[in-house]
Design goal:
heterodimer; A: mainly alpha; 11 helices; 60% helix; globular; B: 128 residues; alpha+beta; 24% helix; elongated
Chain lengths: 329, 128
C-alpha cells in the first residue's frame, strides 16, 4: 500500500544531471524511450539511481508500517473468515515490503541501511499510516479505499523503466486485488447493515477522507519539478492526474452506498471532465510527514522493538560463512 | 506505569514501549544473505525464477520462499540457490545474442521444398 513518493521540495541534492557522460546518458534515454527496461547492471545516471532508491525504499517502508494500523484489528476482527482474511492481507503487506526491499537493494543500498533509516525517522513512508484505525470500520475503509489508491499508483509505476521494481509491482498488484475486494466487502456489509453499522462506516469515511486526499501527494502546482523523472519513467503520472483517476473510479462507488463525503465542493465538472474539490490541509500533511502526527512515534517505536527483540535470534541463526551478494534482478 | 504509552492495540500497550528510546543500528548481515528462488507451478513444467529471499541458510530460505512466492495459485515445487552461486552474462554484452536471428539456416520455416518436389514430379510425368 503506497501513495506517491514524497520528494522534499527543499532538497537540492539530486536535481541535477551535471557531470553525467552525455553519450551514456543519450543511450540510456533512448533505451527508455524505446520502452526497454533498465536492469541493475546497466549504466544509469546518479539522479535516476538516487530517486529510485528513495521511492522504492519509501514504498517498502509503507508496506511494513501499513501493516500496523490494520494489524491492530486482527485480534478483534468480527468473525473467523474476516480474521483469516485480515491476517493474510497483513502478511501480504509485509511480504510486499520484502519484495520492494529486494528491488531497492539491487541499486546498491543494503537492506540493513534502509531499515536503519526507517527506524531513525530519516526515511519517509506513506503519511496515511500516521493516523489511527480507531474502529473496525476504519480498517475496512483502509482495506478498500487506501488499497485502491495504492493500486492506482502501483499499476502506473509497474509500467516504469526499472526492471526489478516493475516485476515486484506486478506481483504486488496481483496480490492486492484481493485486498480491495475484501475491503469493499467489509464496507458494503456495514453500509447495508443496521443504522449503527452505517453510522460507524460513515464516521470512518469522514475521518479518512482528508488522508485519502493527501494520499497522492501535494498538487502539481506546488510539487517539485519532476519533468526529468517523468521522462526517465521513474514517476509515471503526476500527483493530480493520479488523484483524478482515483476520484473517477471510487467516488461513484462510495456514493452508490449512500455514504457522504465530507467535502461540499466535491463534484465532477462535466465540461472539463475533471473532479473539483476543496484542497485538503497541505500544511497538516507536511507537519505529519515530518514526524508530528498522531501515530508517528508509536509506529517507529513498534518497529524498533521488533528489530531489537529479534536481533539475538537473527544473530544466533546466521551461518559463520554468511556472505552477502547483491541480487542480480 | 503512569507514563505507559496507551495504544489502540492492547498488545502494543502491554509491550510498554518507550517512544523516545533509540536502538543500536543494524549491523552488516543482520538481514542475512540472499537466495534466488525458482518456482514450479505443476509437475512437468519448468522451474521459473521469481525473485529472492534473505535467509540465514537454505532450509530457512525454502520456508521464506514458500511464504513469499507460493501465496496464490498453485505450486508443486520450489528451489533456492545462494545468489553467490549464480554466474551471469553482462548486459553490456547483450549483442553477443544479436546474430541468432540472422542464422536463418536454423529456422525450420526457411526450408521450402514443396515447389521443387512439384516440379520434379511434373518432369517425371512428362518423361513417362
Amino acid at each position: 500500500m503506497y501513495g506517491n513518493a514524497y520528494i522534499d521540495p527543499n532538497d537540492q541534492r539530486g536535481k541535477t544531471i551535471e557531470g553525467e557522460d552525455p553519450v551514456l546518458l543519450a543511450e540510456f534515454e533512448a533505451r527508455i524511450l524505446a520502452g526497454e527496461k533498465i536492469e541493475p547492471q546497466d549504466w544509469m545516471p546518479q539522479l535516476y539511481r538516487k530517486q529510485l532508491i528513495r521511492m522504492i525504499e519509501q514504498h517498502a517502508h509503507s508496506e511494513i508500517i501499513g501493516a500496523l494500523p490494520e494489524g491492530t484489528w486482527i485480534t478483534r476482527a468480527p468473525g473467523f473468515r474476516r480474521k483469516l482474511a485480515l491476517m493474510a492481507k497483513v502478511q501480504d503487506e509485509v511480504g510486499h515490503a520484502q519484495l520492494l526491499y529486494s528491488a531497492a537493494e539491487t541499486l546498491g543500498k543494503s537492506r540493513e541501511a534502509m531499515i536503519n533509516d526507517l527506524i531513525t525517522g530519516k526515511s519517509k513512508y506513506s503519511n496515511v499510516f500516521n493516523y489511527p484505525a480507531i474502529t473496525w470500520a476504519d480498517s475496512a475503509i483502509i482495506a478498500w479505499l487506501i488499497d485502491a489508491g495504492a493500486i492506482v499508483n502501483q499499476l502506473a509505476n509497474s509500467k516504469g523503466s526499472y526492471g526489478p521494481y516493475c516485476r515486484a509491482l506486478e506481483r504486488i498488484c496481483y496480490e492486492e486485488s484481493f485486498h480491495l475486494k475484501y475491503g469493499h466487502d467489509n464496507v458494503v456489509h456495514l453500509a447495508t447493515g443496521t443504522p449503527k453499522q452505517r453510522e460507524m462506516v460513515q464516521d470512518a469515511l469522514t475521518r479518512w477522507w482528508p488522508a485519502i486526499m493527501h494520499f497522492f501527494g501535494p498538487p502539481d502546482t506546488i510539487s517539485v519539478h519532476t519533468e526529468v523523472l517523468m521522462k526517465w519513467k521513474v514517476k509515471m503520472m503526476s500527483n493530480d492526474d493520479m488523484r483524478q483517476q482515483y476520484l473517477d473510479m471510487y467516488v461513484p462507488k462510495i456514493w452508490d452506498l449512500g455514504l457522504v463525503l465530507p467535502d461540499p465542493n466535491l463534484h465532477k465538472n462535466e465540461e472539463t471532465g475533471k473532479w473539483e474539490y476543496t484542497e485538503p490541509d497541505w500544511e497538516e500533511f507536511k507537519r505529519v510527514i515530518n514526524g508530528d502526527g498522531p501515530c508517528n512515534a508509536e509506529r517507529l517505536a513498534v518497529r524498533r522493538m521488533a528489530e531489537e527483540k529479534g536481533r539475538w535470534v537473527r544473530r544466533a541463526i546466521l551461518g559463520e560463512k554468511a556472505n552477502y551478494t547483491v541480487p542480480f534482478a | 506505569m503512569e507514563n505507559m504509552h496507551k495504544s489502540l492495540d492492547p498488545r502494543i500497550t502491554r509491550a510498554n514501549l518507550d517512544l523516545e528510546e533509540q536502538i543500536d543500528p543494524l549491523n552488516e548481515l543482520d538481514q542475512f544473505q540472499t537466495y534466488e528462488v525458482f518456482h514450479q507451478k505443476k509437475r512437468g513444467q519448468q522451474h521459473v525464477h521469481v525473485g529472492i529471499v534473505h535467509a540465514p541458510n537454505a532450509d530457512m530460505a525454502l520456508l521464506y520462499a514458500k511464504e513469499q512466492y507460493a501465496r496464490r495459485g498453485v505450486t508443486s515445487n520450489l528451489w533456492v540457490v545462494p545468489s553467490s552461486c549464480v554466474t551471469a552474462t553482462e548486459y553490456f554484452d547483450e549483442d553477443i545474442f544479436a546474430t541468432t536471428a540472422e542464422k536463418i539456416y536454423r529456422d525450420p520455416a526457411t526450408y521450402k521444398v514443396m515447389d521443387r518436389i512439384q516440379a520434379f514430379k511434373e518432369r517425371q510425368a512428362q518423361k513417362s
